[in-house]
Structures are given as C-alpha cells and as structure tokens.
Amino acid sequence: MGLLSEGSPLSWEETKKWANHVKTNGIEQFINLYKRLKDRQGDSLKWGDEVEYLIVKFDHENKRATVSLRANEMLPILREPENQDPASAKSLWRPEYGAYMVEGTPGCPYGALPVHLNIVEANMKLRRKEAQMLLPPNEMVLSVANFPRLGCPGFTFPEYNPDTSEKGVSMSRFFPDEAIFPGHPRFATLTRNIRSRRGSKIDIQIPVFVDKNTPRPFVEAGVPEQKEDMIYLDAMGFGMGCCCLQVTFQASSIAEALKLYDNLTPLCPIMLALTAATPFYRGYISDVDCRWNIIAASVDCRRPEERSVIRKSRYDSVDTYLSEENSEYNDIPLIYEEPHYQSLITEGGIDKSLAKHIAHLFIRDPVSLFSEKINQDNKKDSDHFENIQSTNWQTMRFKPPPPESSIGWRVEFRPCEVQLTDFENAAVVCFVVLLTRVVLTYNLHFMIPISKVDENMKNAQKRNAIATEKFWFRNDLQNKTASYSLMTVNEIINGKEGFPGLITLIQNYLNSMDVDADTQCTLQQYLCLISRRAKGDVMTAAKWMREFVTSHPKYSQDSVITEEINYDLLQRIATLSENHSSTLLGNIDPNRSKTQDNVPEILTR
Amino acid sequence: MDTACGQSIILSSGNILTKSIAWKNGSDAANEEVYESLKSCFDGPSKIIQTGDVYEVFGDDIKNVNGDSERQDLKISLKIFLYSPEKGDLASSIEKGLRLTSSETLDTLVVTFSGHMEGIPISLDIVKSAWLILEDMVRNGKVKVIGLSDVDTQLFIQLHDWAQIKPGIIQINLASCCVVPPELADFCKKEGIQLLTHSDPINALSQEKINMLIEALASHDTFKSESSSVHWDLKWVVRYQVHLKSRGVVATKGLIDGFGQRIKINYFATSNFGMGIVKWSYMCLQAARNISWSNT
C-alpha cells in the first residue's frame, strides 16, 4: 500500500527539484526516530498479514472474465467500520495499484500465543466475505496473484482502451490508465514519474513457455519492442497489478527486529518457490512461476547509464544483513552516498551495517511528492523518510516505530505470492510466524552470504523450481559454523540426514508450548500442506494453474490462454473453497482446520 | 512395600532447547530426550554435591533459571509423570520442581499417571488421592492452576465433580487432537477448562531406558560401590517449562526424574538468555534403593 498522504502531487519536473531536500531531511528524520526509540524494549509479539485480492467479473453467457474496476466504489464502504470505530473493526481495507484490487488486513494485530494462529484463517474468510458482499452476483473477490489475461484487449470492465499517447500515464500498448486505482493520486503519480525518470516506457521481457505448437520464433505482430520468444509487458500495472501476501511482525526491541530480519532474509527465496503462483502474463503461459522479477522491472526507475552501477531495481531483494554480527555475510557491493552514511554513523550513532542499509535505500530519488508534505518538522514528522522507505520495495522491510504511536520496531516479510484459498494463505502465514518463534526460541542462524541469497532468488522463480532447483542453505542452524550447501526445498522443509528441516523445528517448538487441541489440529493441517508441497505430493498454485490450462480441451498447445480457458480457470478457482482440488491440497480437508474467529478467553490466562 | 531410605541422587542436566537432542520428532524423541538429558549430566564434567543421603549431580552449565525476566512476565509450568502411588513422592516431586525453578509459585501443574500398570486404566481413587495433594498446593499458594493429562473423559468428569479445587487444564495426546471426544470438548467449554495437547509418551522413560540409565549411573565412580545392592523403581519424572508471556517463546524446559531408589536425579537445563528465550529441561530421577535390612 505504501505511503498514502493526501494532497496534491507534484509533477515530475517539480519533484526532481526537491530530491535532495527529501533525501537529506529523510535521513535526519530516521536519525531522530532512531535516537528516540533505539532503547525501546518490551513490545509484545504482535503481527498481522496482508492479503491482496482481484475483483473479477464473469460473463457466463460469453464465457469471458474481466477485471472489474470497482475498487474505488467498494473501498469507502469497506472502510466504514474502521472510520467509525477503528478499535472494533474486524478488518482494515486499503487500495492497491489496480483499480480492480483491494487489500485487507486484520482489524487488530494477532498476538503471541499459539491460539492466535487459529484465528488467521477465520479472519481471512471474514475479509473475503466482507468484500464479496458488496459485489453483484457475477463478480467475485479472488486471491489470484495475477489476472491471466491482464493487458489483453477488453480485459477490464468497464472496457477501456490503452492510451499510448504522451498524455497517457503508463503510455502502454496494453494497460489502460483507467485500470490504475483512481481514488488516490499516488499510483498514477508513481507510474508517470518512474517512467519519466527512466526516460522510457517500462520494458519487461519474460520467456514464453514453449509448447508443441508455440510458433518459433515466438513473435507478436504489431509489438516491435518485443524480443524474440519473450512475452513483452510495458507498464507498471503488469507488476504492481499482481497480488501478494505479506506478514509484518513487531519485535520486542530493535535488536530482536534486526535478528528476525537477518534470519528471515535467506528464507525469502525458499518461500517464494513454495508459494509460486504466477505463471501467466498477458494471456500467455510463461516459463517462470513467480511475479518477483516482473514487478522489479515494472518499477525500475534506473536510467540506462545507471544500470551498470546500481545493480538492482528499487524493487528487488535486500542487499545487506542489518546486524553488525552478520556483516561477514554482506558480500555484495553496496552503493550509498557517503555524506548520508556519515550522518547516520556520527550524528545518529547508528551501527555500520544498519547505517549502510538506510543510506543504500536513499540512493533512490523520490518518485512522488505532495506539496503539503514538503516542509516538515524533522523531530515530529517522518514523511520524507517514509517517502523513500516506501518506494524501496524489497523482500524484507525494516520498519521503525511511527512517530507518536505505540507501535514498536517491525519487520515485514514480503516475498510470498498470494495463494488461491484462505486455507493456504493462512498456512503460509502461520508457517512464517512459527519460523520466527523457532528462530528466537532456539537462537538459530540462517544466514548465508547475500550473494547466495540473490542466486537463490533467481532460481526460485524458474518454472517448477520447488521440484527442480537446489538452493544454498545453511547446514548448521544452531552454531556459528557458517557452512552452507545446496539443498532442495524438500530437504530444507522436511529435513534430511544431518539436517532437521524446518517442519521438525516447528514441531519441537509446538511441543514445548501450551497448544490447545483446536489450534493444534489447525496447525497440523497447515504443516501437512507445507510439507507435502515441498515434497511434491501436492502442487504449487503455479503448477496447478499450468496443469489446468494445458489440459483444457480448448487449449491448442500454443502457450495461449484464450478467453474461454481464462474463464474456466477463474471459475474453477472461484469454487475451490467448496470444491477442493486434490492436486492442490492432497487429501487434506481444509474444513478440518478448526479455525475460529475469536480467541477463547480461558486460553489467554 | 517399604522403600527404605537409601541414597538419593539428583541429576541436573543442561538446556534441552539448545542441544541437538531437541531436533528429533515424535514420542520416541521424547523418550530419547529424557534419557539423553539425564545421561548427559554425569557423562561429561559434572559437579556433585552431597548432603547427607542426597547426592546432587550438576551438569556443567547451571545458570539462574529465570535470567533477567520479571516473574510476572513468565509462565512457569510443571508436568509430573507420576510412577509411584505414594503421596510423599508426589509431594516431593513438586517441592523439587519449585526449588529448582527458583520460584515460589508455579502457574500450572499437570499430572499424568505414567508407567502405571500399562494397559490397566487408572482408578479414580488413585487420581483422587493425588488430587488432594494438588489441591493443597493451590491452597498453600504454591500453584495457580492444576490439571491432569491422559485420563479418560468419564474419569475426568467424575474427578471434576468431586474435586473441591477444580482442574483448569486437561491435556490430551497430540495424535488425537483432531478427534477430541466431543463429550470432553463440550465439557471443557462449558466448565472453562483449557484443553491442551502434548506429544509426550505416557512413560517419560521406558523400562529399557530406565535400565540403561541405571547401568550408566552404576558405572560412574561415585556410585559404583552401591550398585550391587541396588533395586531401582522410577518414582516420578518432572518437566518444567518457562514461557515468556508476551512473546510466544519458550524460555525454559526442564525435566526431573525420580527413581524409586530415592536416588533423585535432577536434569537441570540452562539456556541462553541472549534474547530472553530459554528452555530448560529438568529430569529428576528419584530412585529408591531397596536396601535389604541385612546388608550394608
């Protein structure tokens, strides 16, 4: 969601002029925050998930499905409860990039006890229901990572034509500006400014999945920018219009936050491979299973001459561990401006690794700025810091406490792809939360060199990576011996000779906690799903969707997802919660999970 | 049967949390965990303190069990695997647990009737007899919530009806967590009883493991000479856990075994307080040495 200051966005030309102002003041704002809050202790473990949804419209007569640009209409209604009484709202709603997207989070963060894990799924179901209630009969809220025919002609309802002219925000051949959420200027502003800064349209090339009848070379008529055998995408909407699943944790101190951040970082590629759910782009089957690189390219504001120096887009995996004690693993060059770094070290008294991380975030220019927010009181406001922080989209995000709030130091885990059902989303989220508890209980060390994490990120996105790829992973989680080796996702999750596997660690942890029967039942279902997915007994969402399409009677083995195939696929997804798929969940019956919407009082004593 | 006072050996081992024995899964692992933990305290360098008939053997990494945390931030729980029907044994297991947790109170105390005539359901009278001790503990302010583990639904309901201080917890085995007897689930909901799961075997130590442990002990320098006339009965095993309340983190897990030989072997675990998360395992074996009146 990012920073949603209200107000009047500046043009790119104006924004450029204020770049140094924003950066300098942003650094100072972080320094002030840090000094004020670095000794803060004792915040309890609270955490929350964020799920993004698409609104899809079905035309049953013509067997077509489109994205419904209804978000702006829905959001004010969805937000009524939180506007009237935030304390009692069961869920909170936010806009996202697409005019066809909404994002929901739990009304109250979840707590520290195992029993809190048992309300996640019920809360997610509630959110889905809340949104669904506002829709006409032929429209559905779906948690699909990418609308398969996003960018195909007529993919929106209402239908709009893309504006390739200079007046257009995206200037895309395929993505109309009306598909960008209109209710807040941030999204259009970012789109225009990122494009302006880079000096050209977004340029995303994704390898097409070559099937028996796929034309070779694969070339799209009328699309000169397309490279051979690539699916070409040319707008921010193709990336930011995808849905993801995020988890944010509050830590008890800054040291604990850094520890969690560092330990979760090497888990990002593994979770990405496990949750892979994005095999389709603009009506074609691609050769990748994940959205990550696509989004990275969709907001890449680097000018051509910058690309050899600044190695990554402002959306990409993290470049450094944050704790001093893990600096030995920071083996890729980190770009930052020396004056920023020096301020952080000397004025802020901040440790080198954290200072480098912050300074590195600040190499990016602000790409949206509101006139009302230019002049700030750096002791009280933090909008300039948030401006840069929120437009660095990384696999992890380290979040200082907001000024004047009771919220503590937080860590956001951002790589997961949204899953097709609430059961799966809850399973993924609970799995990640349990991993954090395991890290802290057993004082584990997951760190491997950042360059290896980057390598893992590349491999995690390949088609069927969960089964075919190996990932660098630390051999000995308990000790300081930093050796690592290549392991399959199965080995990492389920263990092997000499390596316990993440599930065993979690089971051990659960054995030492007071877990009530209902929660235990639910968690065992979730762990079973993760375990089987890692083993390959059940499919990832990406694989399941590929199978559906490639075995569809109307599929011509040419990598094309027709309107009818798209319609059938989305219809099937829409009925997954009542009509489970055995290839997606195996014989796990998601209705056996004992999730419930509230925490029984006796279990909180 | 008079278990004449013999020597007591208390074994205190290290922190289970950070030892690799914590890495295994299932109920075999639990057995292993108890056995390995106990054995480890006299396997390596250890400190033995003798007070009269009591020998306390400490593994080499004893630290203050509760570290820097405030008592109110901690939840201290004890689970007793009771092998002996004698009230004195149950009472002493609780006292030991309290002493070793360096705390004056326990938040929860749960009893399971282990090794108790396998296959024969436990009688209500035995449970009631143990329950009276537990009630005293609550009245004395030493324990806040008392409960039982692995008792069948009917017995539990009968106990609940009879008890003056009602059970606040019932534990069932993890394997049956998805098929909780509806009667039990309803009863707990109605009466406000926590229905928790565990993955412990009923017997914290199998007979085989008990024998192995005794053999190992018997070959230890300090206790060698005693071995020939020793007859060991396991009295109780106690596991102690400390949780940091607001963090969902296990702080301490300890196991204490009581062998019928009145040899108390406390397995005492310490842990790393770096992040305030510690798990302690205590094993206290209270073994009663059955010394025949005619010998030493």
TrEMBL record, chain A:
Swiss-Prot/TrEMBL keywords: ATP-binding, Glutathione biosynthesis, Ligase, Nucleotide-binding
Protein EC: 6.3.2.2
A GO term for molecular function: ATP binding
Region listing for Disordered, in residue ranges: 584-605
Enzyme class: ligase
Matching SUPFAM superfamilies: Glutamine synthetase/guanido kinase
Biological process annotations from GO: glutathione biosynthetic process
Pathway(s) served: Sulfur metabolism; glutathione biosynthesis; glutathione from L-cysteine and L-glutamate: step 1/2
Catalytic activity: L-cysteine + L-glutamate + ATP = gamma-L-glutamyl-L-cysteine + ADP + phosphate + H(+)
Gene3D superfamilies documented for this protein: 1.10.8.960, 3.30.590.50
Cellular component GO terms, alphabetical: glutamate-cysteine ligase complex
Database matches in InterPro entries: GCS, Gln_synth/guanido_kin_cat_dom
PANTHER family (alphabetical): GLUTAMATE CYSTEINE LIGASE, GLUTAMATE--CYSTEINE LIGASE CATALYTIC SUBUNIT
Annotated family: Belongs to the glutamate--cysteine ligase type 3 family.
Name of the protein in its database record: Glutamate--cysteine ligase
Naturally occurring in which organism (per UniProt): Folsomia candida
Lineage: Eukaryota, Metazoa, Ecdysozoa, Arthropoda, Hexapoda
